[in-house]
Amino acid sequence: MKLSSSLLRAKSIESLQAEADRPGGFRRVLGVWQLTGIGLGGLIGVGIFVLTGVVAATQAGPGVSLSFLIAGVASAAAALSYAEFAGMIPVAGSAYTYAYAVLGELAAWIIGWDLLLEYALVVAVVAIGWSAYLQALLAQFGLALPEWASGAPGTGSGRVIDLFAALGALGVAGLLTLRIELGARFNAAMVIVKIAAALLVIVAGIPYVRVENWTPFMPFGFSGVAQGAAVVFFAVFGYDTLTTAAEEARAPQRDVPRAVLLSLVVALTLYIAMSLVLTGIVRYDTLDNPAPVATAFASLGLPWVAFVVSLAAVAGIASVMLAFLLACARIWFAMSRDGLLPAWFAKLHPRFHTPYRPTLIAGALTALVAALYPIKEVAELVNIGTLSAFVVICSAIIVLRRTRPDVRRSFRAPFVPFTPLVGVGFSIWLLSRLPTVAWERFAIWMAIGLVIYFLYGRRRSRLAGETKELWYGR
C-alpha cells in the first residue's frame, strides 16, 4: 500500500456506529442531565470565580460581559459542529474519532495525540489551582500544610512538592476507575454547588449594584473588549469533554447534542450575569486579585458570601479535573482500540467497565506534573490542542456535508458553512496569539507523536490489518 493511501485511510461512519453497539463495551447509564453535568463540570471553574474579575480589571472593564458574549458566539459555532458529529457518531474519542471518519488516520492521530497532552495538562493546571484554593480555605480555620508540602519547587522558599495538587489528581483518577455513574453523581453534586454559588453571587449582589460603576463601560475601548474575549474564550469551552463519554450515554444520538448545547447556554448565561453584577457592586479596577468575587463581597461587609464562594470554588474546580481526566482517558482508550497505541490500554475493567488503565496512568502523570511544576509553566501548553481540535471539527462538518449528505443526522448545525467558518476563523486567530514558547514545546510533543505513529501506529492500526486482508483476498 502506498504511504499516502495509508495516511488518508478513514473509518466509515457505519463501522463507527456499529462499534458503539457491540456487546461487552461501556455501560450505557448516562442520561442527558448527567452528560450536561459533565459539560458544565468542564466549563464552570476558575473562570467564573477568577477570570471574570481579572479581565475586567486589566482589559475590558464592565465590558467583560461583552467579552463573554463574543467568546460565547465563537465557542457556540464549534459547539454546534460538535453536536452534529455527536449525533452521527456516538462513540468514545470525540474530535479524534470525528477526524478519523472524515480526514483520515494521520489527521486523527495528530488530533488525538494533541488532545492527550492538552487534557492531561488541564488536569494538572486545575489541580494546582485547586490546591491553592483549598489551602486558602483551610487558612481561614488556622490550618496549614508544612511549607515543604505547600507548593512546587520555585514557588516559594522551602517548597518541595504541592501535596494537595497531587492528591487531588490521584483522587479524581481513583473515582473515575469506578462505575461511571459514581463519577457522574459526584460531578453533578459539585456542579450543583458551584451553580448555586454563582446564583448566590447574582442574587446577593443585585441590591448592591451601582450603575455608576458601569461607567465607563469600555474603559480600554472595544479593542480591550476584543482582547478580553480572547482570554475568556478559554472559560467557555469544556463541553467537548462530554462528547468523549458518548458510548456511556443511554440515548447518545439524542442526548449528547442536547447536552453540548445546554451546558454551553447555562455556563454562558451565568458568566455574563456574574460579570455584570461583579462590575456593578465594585469598581472594575479593584478586581485584579486571585479571588475577586470573594474580595468584592468582603468589601461590602458580607464575609459569609465570600466564604461560600471560596467553598464553591474548591468544589467547582474538582469537577473540572474530573471532566478533563475522563476525556483524556477515553481518547487514549479510543486510540488504543483502533490499534494506534498498544491494545493493553483498551481493556475495560472487568467489574466496573471503565478504561481504568489509561485513567490511572494519566492520573499518576498529571499528579506528578502538578506536584513538581509551577502553574505558569504547565499552563503555557494547555490551549493549542483544544483550539486545533475546534479547527478540525468545524472544517470536517463542511467536508462531510458535501461528501456524505446521506448520513442520518439527529442534529444539524444551522447555517453551514457560515457557522463552522466562524469557529475556524476565531480559533485560528486565538492560535496566532499564543506565545512562541508554547508552539516550540508543542512542536516537540508532536514530533514525538509522529515518530510513534510511523514506527508503531501506522503498521498496527486496525485499518491496516483490514486493508491487508482485502489486498491478499483479491
Automatic annotation (TrEMBL):
The keyword Transmembrane helix applies. It is a multi-pass membrane protein. GO terms for molecular function: amino acid transmembrane transporter activity. Pfam families: AA_permease_2. Keywords: Membrane, Transmembrane, Transmembrane helix, Transport. It is found in: Membrane. The chain crosses the membrane at residues 32-57, 64-83, 95-112, 119-143, 163-180, 192-211, 217-239, 260-284, 304-333, 354-375, 381-400, 412-432, 438-456. Coiled coil: none annotated. It comes from the Bacteria. The keyword Transmembrane applies. Its main location: membrane. GO terms for cellular component: membrane. This is Amino acid permease. It comes from Methylocystis hirsuta.
